[in-house]
Every structure is written in structure tokens, then in C-alpha cells.
């Protein structure tokens, strides 16, 4: 019996005696099946290869965590340290003893929280090692491929994980798609960690919004308006996405301006072509 990991999306499945034929997450229109076919690995096989995790201090109280070479979607997770509370925001598939030792040196973990299903990866492995809860919005329950008592399904529009750390449901990319507001980050100006519920684009002064990024399916104007209104009430001046892209200054204003640009493009008032 093995707990297989999809090589395309990085999500780990329940134990099976045979390699799975399908990945539910990849076969859904927001993701994709590799043109060469569905392929699988295990955490044990990954440990025998050349993977390692890079843990980098980004700024006071914030570390990025990324696997090298890239695996699956290639996202970055973040360790937020706030008032003695360590929160892992989003997750990556690879976990080894070196990573566990480094996290332990940094104070371990008190909780894990996820923006959306594409980053569920080996979240149960992480939760079991550090014996912590995983916070997932109940609207995304159907996308959880490994069941666990560590998972806390929360409901509503927001949940306070710790003083000054709040998860907000924005929807959009996934119905339960969420972001993390860290009020005291960036020297008290606030940081918003968004996964790709809000995506930092190539020009780091702007963000965008999508239902599917690999398949370029946009969100409707009504949903982007709703997201912009919710985010407008949050405190942040810097924004990190899941791919190590950062809006370093005035991020609150840039999200609002980006939403207006998006809406103008959909409504045909920004440009003619």
C-alpha cells in the first residue's frame, strides 16, 4: 500500500495497493492532465531523488519554503512567525528530515492553513509530523484527497487563527479560496498572503484574477468586484503570492487598481482591438 502523489499537481492520495488511474484535481478544468499522461510518485521515491527544500528568510517573521528542483505546480509556501505562533501558509509536497529539523529549529508549527486545493500536497504528512491542525474552508471539502482528524473545516467569511492572523474566504479561483491577512507584518503595515486567489503578474505593480490559470479561464466581473470589496477592508501594504512574486509597496491600492483594470477590460472600456 502506497500513498501516491500526483506529479502534475503534487497532491497526495489515500493509501492504495495500485497506482491510481485518475487524479480528480488534474482532471478538473482548473488544472490539467499532462499531455504525456498521468504520472505518480511517492514521498519515499522523492527522498531518493535530488529534491531539497530551500527555506529563506524574506523579512522579519516571514520565511519562504520552496522545493528545488521544481516539483508539480512549483508553488512557494510561507512560514509566518507572529507572537510565538508559527503558521504554515499553503503547503508543498516534499518533506524530509532536513526540512523537519530546520522547522523545529525555527520553533516548529502551531497550525497549517490553505488557500485552495491545488496546494493541499502532502499537508497530512506535515500535520502529523508537527501534530497541528489544518484549516481548510468547508466549501473545498470535496477536493481533500486524504482524510484526517487534523483537518479543521471552517465556515463563513473569515476565521481568526491567532491574534493578528485572519483567514478570509474570497472565492473566485475556488469556492473556498482564501487569503491570509497578517496585520503586523511589514513593520506593522500589514501583509496579505494570497496563494493565487489573487495572482501577482509579471509586472509586479499589478495583480489579476482567474478561474483557471493554466487554461486561461477568467473570472466574471461580478466575482472580481466582490473580491475587491472584501479585500478593501483588510490591512496590508505588501502582498506575496504562491510563486515568490511580491507587490512590495502600496499593495492595497494596487489590488483595487488592478480590479478596476480587469473590469474595464471585460467591459470593453479600457482599450479597443
UniProtKB/TrEMBL annotation:
SUPFAM superfamilies: Metallo-hydrolase/oxidoreductase
Domain Metallo-beta-lactamase: residue ranges: 74-244
Domain of life: Bacteria
InterPro entries linked: Metallo-B-lactamas, RibonucZ/Hydroxyglut_hydro
Protein name stated in the entry: Metallo-beta-lactamase domain-containing protein
Upper classification of the organism: Bacteria, Bacillati, Bacillota, Bacilli, Bacillales
Amino acid at each position: 500500500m502506497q500513498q501516491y502523489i500526483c506529479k502534475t499537481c503534487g497532491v497526495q492520495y489515500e493509501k492504495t495497493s495500485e497506482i491510481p488511474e485518475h487524479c480528480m484535481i488534474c482532471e478538473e478544468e482548473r488544472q490539467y492532465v499532462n499531455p504525456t499522461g498521468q504520472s505518480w510518485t511517492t514521498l519515499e521515491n522523492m527522498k531518493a531523488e535530488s529534491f531539497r527544500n530551500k527555506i529563506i528568510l524574506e523579512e522579519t517573521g516571514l520565511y519562504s519554503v520552496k522545493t528545488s528542483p521544481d516539483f508539480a505546480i512549483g508553488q512557494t509556501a510561507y512560514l509566518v512567525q507572529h507572537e510565538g505562533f508559527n503558521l504554515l501558509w499553503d503547503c508543498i509536497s516534499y518533506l524530509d528530515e532536513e526540512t523537519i529539523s530546520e522547522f523545529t529549529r525555527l520553533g516548529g508549527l502551531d497550525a497549517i492553513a490553505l488557500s485552495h486545493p491545488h496546494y493541499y500536497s502532502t499537508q497530512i504528512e506535515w500535520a502529523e509530523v508537527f501534530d497541528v491542525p489544518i484549516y481548510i474552508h468547508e466549501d473545498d471539502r470535496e477536493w481533500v484527497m486524504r482524510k484526517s482528524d487534523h483537518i479543521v473545516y471552517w465556515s463563513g467569511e473569515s476565521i481568526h487563527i491567532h491574534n493578528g492572523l485572519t483567514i478570509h474566504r474570497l472565492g473566485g479561483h475556488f469556492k473556498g479560496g482564501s487569503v491570509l491577512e497578517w496585520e503586523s507584518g511589514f513593520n506593522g503595515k500589514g501583509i496579505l498572503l494570497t496563494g493565487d486567489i489573487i495572482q501577482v503578474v509579471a509586472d509586479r505593480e499589478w495583480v489579476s484574477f482567474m478561474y483557471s490559470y493554466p487554461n486561461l479561464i477568467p473570472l466574471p466581473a461580478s466575482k472580481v468586484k466582490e473580491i475587491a470589496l472584501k479585500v478593501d477592508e483588510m490591512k496590508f501594504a505588501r502582498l506575496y503570492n504562491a510563486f515568490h512574486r511580491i507587490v512590495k509597496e502600496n499593495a492595497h491600492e494596487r489590488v483595487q487598481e488592478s480590479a478596476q483594470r480587469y473590469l474595464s477590460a471585460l467591459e470593453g472600456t479600457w482599450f479597443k482591438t
